[in-house]
Write a structure and sequence with these properties.
This protein has 146 residues and is mainly α. Helix content is 64%, strand content 0%.
């Protein structure tokens, strides 16, 4: 090929022209050297650990915008298989309004274990309250029959 001919017969002139034209040499030996250098560089950098930095929670906060919020709602509805009307529920709106008032826009979302524990605690409190009301009602009913 022409490149092999240039390399074997006109190497010095080609290199001079390439340098003046600010052109990367395409001669087979030069290409081979560049590939070897790239392999050495790639072999040296095996991980990005040295280049990574921990981000604080505040750094990870996504800035609010209406389009970002709408997209997040759409993704939440689709990924969690929510009904499309979920965003119209009063409790959803209450939750969003509470989140909007969080300091610095940072909220702590409970994981599944904390959520389950909260539901169980609320259930037991509700049952205790119901039991107390029923006992009071039973006592009043017995007195009125006497």
């Amino acid at each position: 090929t022409l490149r092999r001919h240039l390399q074997s017969v006109h190497k010095a002139q080609y290199h001079q022209w390439a340098k003046e034209a600010n052109f990367e040499s395409k001669l087979p030996d030069d290409v081979k050297k560049r590939k070897e250098q790239n392999r050495k560089i790639e072999a040296e950098q095996k991980t990005l650990d040295a280049h990574l930095q921990d981000m604080t929670k505040a750094d990870r906060v996504v800035a609010y915008s209406d389009p970002a919020f709408r997209r997040a709602i759409l993704e939440w509805i689709v990924i969690t298989d929510q009904p499309i009307s979920a965003t119209e529920h009063p409790q959803y709106r209450t939750m969003m309004e509470i989140c909007a008032r969080s300091p610095n826009g940072i909220i702590t979302i409970p994981d599944r274990n904390a959520t389950r524990a909260g539901i169980m605690r609320a259930f037991h409190e509700q049952m205790s309250g119901l039991k107390d009301r029923l006992q009071v009602s039973c006592h009043r009913s017995k007195r009125s029959h006497i």
